[in-house]
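Bug: token stream looks shifted between consecutive jobs. Job 1:
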Amino acid sequence: MRSIEKKRRALSGYKISKAVAFASALIILDAILVSLIVAFVPYTKIDWDAYISQVDGFLGGERDYSELKGDTGPLVYPAGFLYVYSAIKFVTGGQVFPAQILFGILYIVNLGIIFLIYVKTDLLPWWTLSLLCLSKRIHSIFMLRLFNDCFAMTLLHASLALLLYQKWHLALLIFSGAVSIKMNVLLYAPPLLLLMWKGMSIMGLLSALLGAGLLQILFGLPFLLSHPVAYISRAFNLGRVFIHFWSVNFKFVPEELFVSKGFASALLALHLTLLLLFAHYKWSKH
């Protein structure tokens, strides 16, 4: 039995070392690809100018969220977004090319974190890591569009990596930081809460949630103290209607149906139903 266990451990160690070596080679190759994209592929102008306009208003002393606007409309992201892009503007001077370099570095960091998650879980063959480098859309979102999704998802993936090591409190703080950049990260909250419910004590769960909540208050404090209603209604607006033109998944739906409250309610009900089914039959199976 001991010899079988030793062989099993040796095989597992060999698989992990092979995956790590392959992941390292992929990171180097993708870093070269990132450099070529930044150097030769034209930047796609969508939200960058709007981000910088909103940041300029914040740095100029504006604390009323209803007055922070850009080319694409009013600011609809929580306060963490302003802090991150204020730092980006300070580093890059608000120029696109140095920002692309910064986002290229961020892409490689995010890719490394995802590789860590895949290697640590050891659920897929090592060669499948290459599939993570083949997305044209992900490269575009990072290096050509400079979206805030990049920072939000990198923090989310860092949070997931910490969960693998059961660093619950730190993972939830980083998760809260991701939410403060873009609220769609909350879509990951249901399975995260279930994991914490199963892996922590009640007191531990409550203290972790309290820490995450306090972080949101701390980030939003300059706006909560001056114009709390404007901040909460704009930064955490769950009833916002999206523009049909920019839809990716529901382009086939007529615009009249897409912007209707009935369609939004139906999607929400379907989403919650699927979450309950997965929670009962999949996530809590064992």
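Job 2, same session, no restart:
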Amino acid sequence: MLKSVHLFGCSSGFVSNLLKPNSIVGFGLTFVSSKRLSASSSLSCSSSRLSCSSTASLFLAPRTGSFKAFCGSTCSEANQEGSSSSPLSMSESPPPASSTVTHSSEKIRNIRFCQWCGGQTKHGIPEGEEKLRAICTVCGKITYQNPKMVVGCLIHHDNKVLLCRRKIEPSYGLWTLPAGYLEIGESAADGAIRETLEEANAEVEVTSPFAQLDIPLIGQTYIIFMGKLKKPYFSPGPESLECRLFPLDDIPFDSLAFSSMLVTLRLYVEDVKAGRATFHYGTINKRPGTGASDIHAYTLDYHLRL
């Protein structure tokens, strides 16, 4: 008996910076041409490289070591919720609760080509695993997709906070802390310092960690550091329209770019008014179906103050 399962994803081609190398030996693929049990879903996302919508159906045979799958999707190039220095945004509908293979929180991109040999991939569940993977039909290697880390600085100077107004889409013209993706070979603190220099031409010194905020829906973790200016100088970088120091009472909470920035700055203001320095950990759960512009559509869960 075949089981029909919803598969969420989008075609990304080679997305090597999201993937974890691994391989599989002796895995058999069996692709279905019989009647499909219809299971369709849609996903839209904006990322530094792509935006797409896709429909897919997956059929599992009870036979060990094999799977049957059908995947169809379309993809087009687009900007991301932040280019190299800002976060990814997704809006999607969760899979049905009756799914026997994927949990409702599981997300997968339909990677069409192998990052090692360029061969075409198909999605299935390898033997001994429980999650959908992209498996190369040529070399047999599995593409693993892992969360990304975003790092940034919360610069306090003269009782003010340094913000940058975005010069790129999405969220063009809205305000954000200087932040972006961590690069290979960098520590989190080094990445935060680099991003601040790139976006605000500001040389800073990291003084302490401030917050770790996980956003499972888009596969990201934010690490925000407290920092101070080495020199009282800053100016807009290539991705910023302007940079400005805001008194706490004047922070433009209604004109911030992302929920992560809203949460970070609210927590900072609370700490300052309470007269305490606190490290925060929390999970930002975005409301399904909302996009990057819906910065208030979230709950902050598992919030810990240390």
